[in-house]
## 1
Amino acid sequence: MRPALAILALLLALAAPAAAFDPREALPDPALETRARGLSAQLRCLVCQNQSIDDSAADLAKDMRRVVRERLTAGDSDGQVIAYLQQRYGDFVLLKPPMKPETWLLWFGPLLVLLAAAGGLWIAWRRRRAVPAAGPVPLSAEERRRLAELTADR
Amino acid sequence: MVAELGHYALVLALLVSLVQSSVPLVGAARGDAGMMAVAGPAAQALLALLAFSFLALMHAFVNSDFSVLAVALHSHSAKPLIYKIAGTWGNHEGSMLLWVLILALFGGLVARYGANLPPSLKSRALAVQGMLAAGFLLFILFTSNPFARVLPPPPDGNGLNPLLQDPALAIHPPMLYVGYVGLSICFSFAIAALLEGRVDPAWARWVRPWTLTAWLFLTGGIALGSWWAYYELGWGGWWYWDPVENASFMPWLVATALLHSAIVVEKRDTLKGWTILLAILAFALSLIGTFLVRSGVLTSVHAFAVDPARGVFILALLVVSIGGALALYAWRVPDLKGGGLFAPISREGGLVLNNLLLATATATVFIGTLYPLLLDAVTGQSVSVGPPYYNATFVPLMVPLLIVMGVGPLLAWKRADLRGITGRLLTAGAATLVVAVWVGSLPLNRHAEAYDLATLAGFAGTLRLPAAALGMALAAWLVLGALGEWARRVGLFRLRPDESWQRARGLPLAAHGMTVAHLGVAIAVAGFVGAGLWKHEVGRVLKPGESLTVERWQIVLAKLEDETGPNYKARRAVFVVTEDGGAPFLMAPEKRIYDTQGQPTTEAAIRTTGLTNLYLVLGDEAGGGAWAVRVLVEPMVPVMYYGIMVMMAGGLMSLLDRRSRVGAPRRARAAPVAGGPAAAPAHGDD
């Protein structure tokens, strides 16, 4: 985070925040308003810890919610609104990280793990079948002693 | 004076832990019974010293001794007594002390109740516990001394963060810590088994109750945290995929996998290396969770770099303990001989698939949580990983897991005959289909507002209906799978009712526990799906006397009033609500301002019908005496928590099964045929 942004964040965090989403912000058209709420839930409040602008009470989140509604009223598609905010605030604003070379590992990591684990499992299973199971482990001296003790009781 | 004694006890505890971590280990290597016997008394002494130290800190908090820095920074004389007590662990220093105390508590329990453990295993496990305690005691004494004094003492303290002044949050950290730290026992037993060079069904049995205990507390702690976020933060959400939440969720996922893989070791003497690895990873993730939350690295990588002392210390602890454990694992695991073979379609196969999916799910959460930190540290770029990511990666992994979970318990060990259960599967499948169609036709799906699962995954309205139908169908599938297995075991409808009753009574408690736990998962899944997809929200600006109608509720704003609490001032809105012309009731959401920190908090008003929550939040003043109000209708949110409770009840039943009671020396004598703890479990399946 750049220093100016950090200072801004600090100031906003100190200022008494308003409540989260306020019904007065709502657009008159219910379909448009639903889209606005859906988009707000996908955008991160930049000065908060892991909150969407829909959940956040910070003033910056309020401003961003207004921007979303302005763009929608102006006729932007959902994708255009997202692109507009991404251009202004960077990838950080997207709660759904963009797909790009730097995030390939993020997006495909889980799949790789699944494939690697499944592959490992397959190999282990094949190998296990090839080699007959080892016989039971022989008892240790201590265990033989205990066994003798226990059977002597009877 | 008391604070100094507490500090002194802490230093003594460090010395004891050093003895506990070395002498028994040498004793076990040499076969010296005297040296091995040191482990037990040392563990008990460690527990006594740490308990004393913790009570000394609590004494400072209860008496508001502001000459102790931690008290001055985190407490306040006007706080209610319960929050003064909870304040002991409501700060970094105190919570770390609680962490080691719980570690010592588990060590003490093993020492006290582990009489039937082989002496070398017991002393080695306790030595590993001692090493962990020593590491964290060094951390506390050198970087986070809870007894540090401040001179001159301030006239009053800073106060607790008002969001945290809440009964659920007072007990949430200790519960979570018991879960986190309880996994240390599995870790210590795993290391001890690697040192011994053998893992057998008896080992799995000894570890099971500890894993179950840790799992129960983790589940409870996570649920409590979620419930707190639900009613306190005022957003009506219950899980945010926040890194702090993820930090506790990852050990839970691995502990769940461990519970299941340990069953395979216990019953079939196979999957040993994997189970040991899970035991190590479960605690490793607990440590990583502690590191993430305690080092400040989550707030920002840069904040961590500015004051790195604590973070670097925990990081070093992490590297030494996890790295050491994994190195030992790599070295010794080839010696662990695998046991029974099994076909892919078998109970073992189902459990392996369960583990594969749970492990991948854990890896997904791990990647999502740590990727932003890593990317920032390496390239300086910042990305956010929020709920949409997890909905697209984690949720799809749960679908096959739940399908397997419905079938798995029906399969026989070793080699299952699918044809034998085809009839059962077809019945369950048909019933599942009926549920899917029925859920798809529910009016709940028609509300445009659902901002959680579907919208976040980027599918908006188009996918919400199929998602709800699929989710509920999976829940139904699970119910039928769990009940079907139980019915087969007791011979329901196949035998005479009295014979079935006899069989049900003859089943071990753990078997009933599994059925109940799986039913709990089914109920919770139904809850997650409904709560995520059927939320309905209305926001309005109201003046006193005005009303609005949301679904079947008529909501009238009666009046606004001011209230003064012990250390806060509140503005409260009183609503009169009637449900479909029924008897009216009052709901009163508040906005509070705490005296010390001036930060407003919302107290939502929640009314539950048992299936649906009505959730009211008071927003800002809109001028002219009008107030912004949010009304959320949240179907299935209570069901989600019922499911978790049922799941925990199942775990508890399994824990209370006398077969899993560790260290009941009576047990060995009461089982004449068993002939010692290493005997294979007498109870099979059928």
## 2
Amino acid sequence: MYNQTEILKDTSELGADGELVINMGPQHPATHGVLHLVVTLNGETIKKIEPHLGYIHRSIEKMCESLTYRQFIYVTSRMDYLSSHINNLGCALLVEKGMAIEVPDRAKYVRVILSELTRIASHELWLGAMAMDLGAFTPFFYAFREREMITDIMEDTCGARLTMNYIVPGGLMYDIHPDFQKKVKAFITQFKSKVTEYEDLVTNNVIFQSRTKGVGILTAEDAISYGCTGPVARASGVSCDIRKLYPYEVYDKVEFDEVLETAGDSFARYIVRVKEMNQSIRIIEQLIDNIPEGDFVGKTKNVLKLPKGEFYTRVETARGEFGVFVVSEGGTTPHRIKFRSPGFSNLSALNHIAAGSKIGDLMASMGTLDLVIPDIDR
Amino acid sequence: MFSLEGITTSVQDWLFMKFNPTMALAMECVIVILLAISLFAILGLVLVLMERKVAAHIQIRLGPNRVGPGGMFQTVADTLKLIMKEGLVPDMADKFLFNLAPFVVMMVGMLLLAPIAFAKNFQIWDINIGVLYISSVSSLSVIGILMAGWASNNKYSLLGAMRSGAQIVSYELSAGFAVLTIVVLTGSLQISEIVKAQENGWWIFKGHIPAIIAFVLYIIAVTAETNRAPFDLAEAESELTAGFHTEYSGMRFALFFLAEYINIFIVCAIGATLFFGGWMPLHIGNWAAFNHIMDYIPSSVWFMGKTFFLIFLIMWFRWTFPRLRVDQLLNLEWKYLLPISLFNLLLVAIIAILGWHF
């Protein structure tokens, strides 16, 4: 028979005050990927969280250095796979900026519509996954019902449901599907009629509110100092929407509100994302009927060469600011490339917001950070 | 009309006619054991399928629909798979306790089956302290869970088992007080007496508001006691992978899984007995014709109908609510449910003494 020290000694380094170290991940239902959290516990209370990264590191940045400016975009779909359109867009914008390529209006409109659809799809998946982290399975299926319509639209448009690779420097790879507008409108109608179900099932649920309100509080100062962006920072009251601050494509022509909450807790992050979905719908509604006729791709040279120098563009993905930094030596491939991924900075705040709370709170905090691990590891 | 009422007496008469009393008793024992085991197997199959269908309906899906008509044999296929699987025992586990734990949990379910009245005159053991027996035996299941969590030598299992311990011990109280409410009203601990007292109306109707409060408390408490969502902290899939049965596989896991459903059935059966009159048909005042029609429905159908209604209720909870946090769970019990149930018991005592109930 075992006594306590015998049964624990081989599997953990037992701390001074009866600390228990558990490895959450890389295979764990709540880390949604291969995130590895080394969690130091005192009973149920978390003392420290240490994220260990690298399980899905594919050295995308290094890979991009040997790919041409047309090719490297495809790799970026595999980073934040839930915002692949927006990643592609960021890279295409950089090449267009560097080479001063004119993008036709039609392409710009479609790019924005697709970006917003991607944002909704990403938030839908997050909603389901986060509810599942908190132990509610049903919202997952409701969220996927709407997400499925978006992926169907994507499939029609670019032949892929996850890694789109549809946006190329200069415009789009090919024209939109003839049914595109009809299907997007059908989606908007469906979404508007069903969004109340989320309110009934999740937002107004007493247990859900008590699990998320006041949990994982991130103040505005901390959000800035950890470099948080996107819904995480906006829930703390930090205005950081790239679409508003540095408008790209046609974001300056459409009306939408930057959703800001001040509480900074998990519930605020939840509310920000739900409201953002409605804002995205608003943007799509303004654009979908006004897609101009014309070319879908601008005139570009066959071989793209960025002039010597340093280039940076940023776009707003579903998770926050996605930046692309390229150092060019004037060749056909980037000399150095660096992606600023929103997930990495958001993850860095995890220890700060979850330490001192219970294990259950960790799920609420981590769930609302909306982590996509390939985006963090690249 | 088919009914289970006559079967037991005729079987007993036949056995005692053919054999000497000791032999007849032994044969009765064998019959009861066989019946109980087959009931377990059937319940496991039916309830797992039911849960999957209910979940599918709530989650706008179809659920199992490939094996057999309407997916009826899906659970059979799953059980076969579980039997064929290797039952892995972790290297550093306490082998004896690890193997024992699923059987302890299962045994508790079996013991609880004894005093339940499935139909008129269809009861294994009409013990005169029936309700007390149920309360005391049902709290044993925590031992099996603690055993499993401890012996697995897995930190997730240990955390799950500790949560389960705190949870079951706490919620025992509320469940006990809710049951006591009916005991006070009936004045007896015997299950058959409690059922008989509801001949002219079920306690949920007769007992005024306190009985309804007691019923709500009972449902909440037993949901927690059986480790079902929103109180499934012992398993807490997204937090502790699978909680106390993380390391279990194959048939040992199947036993835990089965025990969960058996426990649900038993607590719902007890709930139906206490609050909904067990096998008593629904009678309304002096509506003689209506009452007469209700009497035609066999008592076993009444009992199963009520029990499965409560089971559906508990499944409904599971697929609608998120999980509570461990401190919220304990707060709910000690700060809200327990004071309410104490006050409720007092109220019922007053009602019973003054004879305000029907």
